C-alpha cells in the first residue's frame, strides 16, 4: 500500500504541483532580485515594499525624461545663439 508509483495520476499531480511550487519560488526570487537592483540604482527609495519601489522608479524615470527635455531645449537655444553670431546666418549683418 505504501508504494509510490510516479506513473499513477496522483504521482503525476504531485510532481506537477511540486514543479509549479519551484517555478513560483524561482519567479519570486528573480522578482526580488530585480527589485533590489532597482533600489540600488534609483535614488531616494525609502519604502521597501514592491508597490512603493515601482512607484518611485516610475517617478524617477519621469523626472529623467523632464530633465532630458530641458537639456535638449537648452542645447537648441545655445545652438541657435551660436548661429546668430556667425556671419551669413542672419544674426549679424556683414
From TrEMBL:
Keywords: DNA-binding, Nucleus, Transcription, Transcription regulation. Residues 15-64 form the BHLH domain. The keyword NAD does not apply. One of its GO terms (molecular function) is protein dimerization activity. It holds the Pfam family HLH. SUPFAM superfamilies: HLH, helix-loop-helix DNA-binding domain. Gene3D superfamilies: Helix-loop-helix DNA-binding domain. GO terms for cellular component: nucleus. InterPro entries: bHLH_dom, HLH_DNA-bd_sf, TF_AMS/ICE1/BHLH6-like. Residues 1-21 have a biased composition (Polar residues). Residues 1-25 are annotated as: Disordered. It is found in: Nucleus. Homodimer. PANTHER family: TRANSCRIPTION FACTOR BHLH35, TRANSCRIPTION FACTOR SCREAM2-RELATED. This is BHLH domain-containing protein. It comes from Corchorus olitorius.
